[in-house]
Amino acid sequence: MTPISSKPPRWVELLLKAFCPKDKHREILGDFEELYNAKIAKSGKLKASLFYFLMIFQLIRSESELSIYWTFAMFRNYTTIAFRNLKRQKAYSIINISGLALGLSVFLVLSVWVLHELSYDRFHEKTSFIYRVNEIRHFPDDVQYSSRTPGPLSQVLKETFPEVKEAVRFAWTGERVIRYKDRVYYENAIITADPEFLNMFTFSFIKGDKKNALDQLYSMVITESIADKYFGGEDPVGKVVSLDNRFDFTVTGVIEDVPSNSHVQFDMMVPFDIVEKLGWAARVWNFSLASTYILLENNVDIQEFEKKIAGIVKTHNTDTNIELFLQPLDKIHLYSNFENPRAKGRILYVYVFSFVGILILLIACINFMNLSTARSEHRAKEISMRKVVGSSRRHLLRQFLFEALFFACVGLVFALLLVQIFLPGFNEITGESFSLSNLTEGTLLLLILGVTLMTGVLSGSYPAIFLSSFQPVDVLKGKLKAGSSGSRLRKTLVWIQMSVSIFLIIVTSVIYTQIDYLKNKELGFDKEHVISVPLGIANTENPQIYSRFKTELTQNPHVQMVSASFTHPSWFATAAGQVRHKGRRLDEKIPINITSVDYDFIETLKIKILKGRSFSKDFGSERGNLIVNETFDKLIGAESAINETLTIGNEYQGQIVGVMKDFHMESVSTGKIGPLILFLNPRINYIFVRVNPGNVSSTLASLEKAWEKAAPNLPFNANFLDEEFDSLYQDVERLGTILRYFTYVAGFIACLGLIGLASFATEKRTKEIGVRRVLGSSVGGIVVLLSRDFVRLVLVANLCAWPFAWLVMQNWLQKFPYHVNLSWSTFILSGLLALIATLGAVAFQTIRASLADPVHSLRYE
Amino acid sequence: MKLLTRSEEYILLAVWRLKDNAYSVSILEQVSKVTGYKWQIGAIYIPLEKLRKKGYLRKYKGEPSAQRGGRSKRLYELTDAGIKALKEIRDVQDTVWAGVPKVALD
Predict the structure, then answer these.
(1) Candidate from B23, B66, B73 with C-beta closest to A5
(2) Is residue A224 part of a domain?
(3) Pick from B41, B67, B71: which is nearest to A37 by CB?
């Protein structure tokens, strides 16, 4: 043996430590080191090191083989036991698994939606450098936003600022008639866009070249589905389609359908310069018509740049107070809506739904925890036996976590089935088109696995800790009164479940009353029994079509009255303009809406005239006569607005001849009624027909006949005015509907848990019930006795849920200019509902227990 | 009672011979010396543990040494049962070999 001691390579030893963390190899390592030293003396360092490594390697191998073998064996045992438990306690297993499956499926459906929402506009290659330029106007007590900007802006931005790599505009054309041979349809998703639009945004071309697709003035790019609709199997490229029977466009390219997660959803695209042919001013600074997007260099300080561009519109149009601000492309969908680019927008729904999804999953996990701890007595002997034969607490923890994971995985399988069932309905509510294949996308797949794992761990952790803490001596001696320990925590958990459920019930019912209120709010006009027929926008032939149509309808027995307007009444609030009264600018304080209508418009919509008169042919030419609404009347401040003179724009002089009752011109949920001025003008885009109630189909058929005579080469397109107004509440309504279903699910899962717990509680008290019955207690008395605990829990849960729900809903309602007030009855009714549901869930078990023959219950052992 | 195997016999004898310095490496050297060929350390560990479990050997902790990287030795000593087992195997061998002169095998 050599007296010089040299150290063997450290890393080999570390390797061993990594594999076998326990320090049980000290002496063996000592041996190896000694042998290593001897080897060095004999055959050199290299061989010695090799020998040392081999020795350690063998040690690791033998150790890990052992541990893998035993781990595997134990897991096989755990699986067997889990299966046996699942089979033996069928009712509990069903409750557990169905709860988990429901919770998981709701969570999955919601995450598909949430992830889709979050993915908006991220598919463009240059997303992070693209910004939309928006307008903001400050009024003393109002701010108005718009995503539209004047036509010349993009050119100026590109030329003045080196930070701007590219700037493009696009504008909607509104509803247009598109014709190819005998195929004629109305299309409303047509945009006019600068040719560079296709370079800045990423839309994949199937046919044609994106570099020069929009170079020619009369060129057109269409989506795949439009190509199918008009051309069927033919090759669309090179084909000529007509727009409004006025312009002929040549198809130069076909792109894939715009992804559903794009905030711009268009079907057809024509060059921007077409807007001038359509009669819009694209070269002036006082008309905002287009959305402007800029692509910035990648090291631009956005805030600095925003300050630089804020005043551009004002320098070109001294008459306005418009300022500009930027909005990142990927935030447009979530953080804005068209009326208000700085409103919270959809992100609120994203938060709400993520929160609800987590809450429901939590309720399901709580069920699992409650039931497994409540059933602990059945497992106590097994646990004790395991401990006695040498299982450590760690092994037991591992076992119960594994069991929970096992349940979660079984739950996941059923959850996927449920998702398949839920998705069609969910798609219908949200207007999306999700399928099960969405779940296999990378992020979601990870999320599913992660959530299943988390559900397992979350719902298994407490039972694992609780169950593994049993003292075998106590259990085997029969000292342990299982189920009694941990009952406080169980109560807390049930209380959380109940609070969450009550909270959801209140939230849903408040949302519903608000939606109801919005939809039934007196609009100021009669939206029922009015059919609206859109004409091609700014089509020069419109007045002729309108008058022919009107003539056709004079003899129609179904029709009461016909009129028309320039903009749709639900868009009146977006047509703001300049108004002067006695030299004073009225629109500096508040935006004033100005639009034109035809004779009989006020009568057709049944709007009340408060002062003066309506437009009428009896008064000769109505040119220069105006009718204003109540709000405008108040704005003028004079005793009566009648006969006051207004200057609209720069020169148009008008005299007020009537004041009409305020009516809503946009969704009741977004704005208060603003001032409105109506004047007569033959330029119209929408026809309104008030029909007699009843027999809708024959009325529509007769209208269509009249239309065919009035406009033989245009398709007939009719909508019901009430439906059009109702659709303004689509978003809130979706929120309400989705929440309603999720509240059902949450309530159902919670009830499942209650049923499980109630059956456990009655089982525990079988003997007590028997004794009570023998001593003369009534069935009713026993039901009350058994239900009392649950009722108490629900009452406490109510008290906790109410303030939260009140705060949250008060906050939500504040967003609406017109809203219901929170009433105590909603809260009390929700609480009662929860109470009834609880009693119902508990009733079956308690009644059965109290009806049972005491002889049996006293003999059971 | 089962008889000792040959390697067990070697190891027990090595432990006896090495007295208070009987541990894996010294036993390995001793056995290799006696038999004349190189034994693997693993071939020592396993019978050592087996013998200990049978009760022929007792294990105790030795002093740490620098040569072993500051780790202590796992020393072994014979128990009474071990001595008895050795005696037994010797008796058997003596009986088996009785009357066979060394020259007879040449």
Answers:
(1) B66
(2) yes
(3) B67
Residues of chain B neighbouring A34 (CB-CB closer than 8 A): 25, 67-68
Q: Do residue A58 and residue A153 come from a single domain?
A: no
Confidence of residue A86 (pLDDT cuts 50, 70, 90): confident
For the four alpha carbons of A799, A801, A807 and A809, in that order, the dihedral sign comes to: negative
At A595-622, the pLDDT tens digits run: 889 988 999 989 998 888 888 888 877 7
User: Which of A27, A29, A34 faces B67 most closely, judged by CB atoms?
Assistant: A34
Are residue A133 and residue A282 in the same domain, yes or no?
A: yes
Query: What is the domain partition of chain B in residue ranges?
Result: 6-95
Minimal C-alpha gap between A30 and chain B (Å): 5
Model confidence at A552: pLDDT above 90: no
Q: Please tell me whether residues A65 and A141 are part of one structural domain.
A: no
A27 to chain B: which residues are within 8 Å by CB?
24, 71-74
Interface test with B, best of A17, A26, A27, A28 (most B CBs within 10 A): A27
- What integer pLDDT is reported at residue A515 of this predicted model? 85
Residues A31 and A179 in one domain: no
* DSSP output for A679-692: EE-S--SEEEEEE-
Q: Do A35 and B23 touch (CB under 8 A)?
A: no
Please tell me the least confidently modeled range out of A79-83, B90-94, B98-102. B98-102
Question: Residue A583 is encoded by which pair of tokens?
Answer: 């030299």
A35 to chain B: closest CA residue? B25
Co-location of A145 and A22 in the same domain: no
Distance from CA of B26 to the nearest CA of A (A): 10
A623 inside domain: yes
Please measure the distance between the N-terminal and C-terminal CA atoms of chain B and give it in whole angstroms.
34
Domain encompassing residue A64 = 10-88
Cβ distance B25 to A27 less than 8 Å, yes or no, reads: no
Within A175-267, strands assigned E span 176-180, 183-187, 190-193, 205-207, 219-223, 240-243, 247-255
Boundary residue ending a domain (A692, A710, A727): A692
Q: Pull the structure tokens for residue A52.
A: 């040392």
Q: What is the ipTM of this complex?
A: 0.79
Does the global pTM surpass 0.90? Answer: no
Q: Which CATH architecture has domain B6-95?
A: Orthogonal Bundle (1.10)
State the average pLDDT for chain A.
84
CA A846 to each of CA A426, A497, A756, A786, A836: distance values in angstroms, whole numbers, following the listed order:
37, 21, 12, 6, 14
**Do A72 and A137 fall within a single domain?**
no
Q: Which of A323, A342, A361 is the last residue of a domain?
A: A342
Q: Are A117 and A332 in contact (CB under 8 A)?
A: no
First and final CA of chain A: distance in angstroms? 73
Option in B66, B67, B72 nearest A27 (CB): B72
Min CA distance, A74 vs chain B (Å)? 26
Kindly state whether residue A861 falls inside one of the protein's structural domains: no
pLDDT digits (tens, 9 = 90+) for A677-697: 998 888 888 899 999 988 888
Chain A positions with Cβ closer than 8 Å to B: 1, 3, 5, 7-8, 26-35, 37, 55, 58
**pLDDT above 90: percentage of residues in chain A:** 15
Residue A34 Cα, gap to closest chain B Cα (Å): 5
Q: What is the pLDDT of residues A486-536, one digit of tens each?
A: 677 888 888 888 899 999 999 889 988 988 888 888 888 888 899 998 886
Q: Number of Cβ pairs closer than 8 Å across A and B?
A: 42
pLDDT at residue A731, rounded to an integer: 75
Quote the number of domains for chain A: 3
More confident residue, B72 or B96: B96
Same domain? For A660 and A534 the reply is yes
What secondary structure letter does DSSP report for A608?
P
Residue A225 is predicted with a pLDDT of 92
Q: Is A30 in Cβ contact with B71 (below 8 Å)?
A: yes
Q: Please name the residue ranges forming H helices in chain B.
A: 6-18, 24-35, 42-54, 80-97
pLDDT of residue A345: 64
Angle between helices A347-374 and A393-430 in degrees, nearest 10: 140
Q: Are residues A165 and A72 in the same domain?
A: no
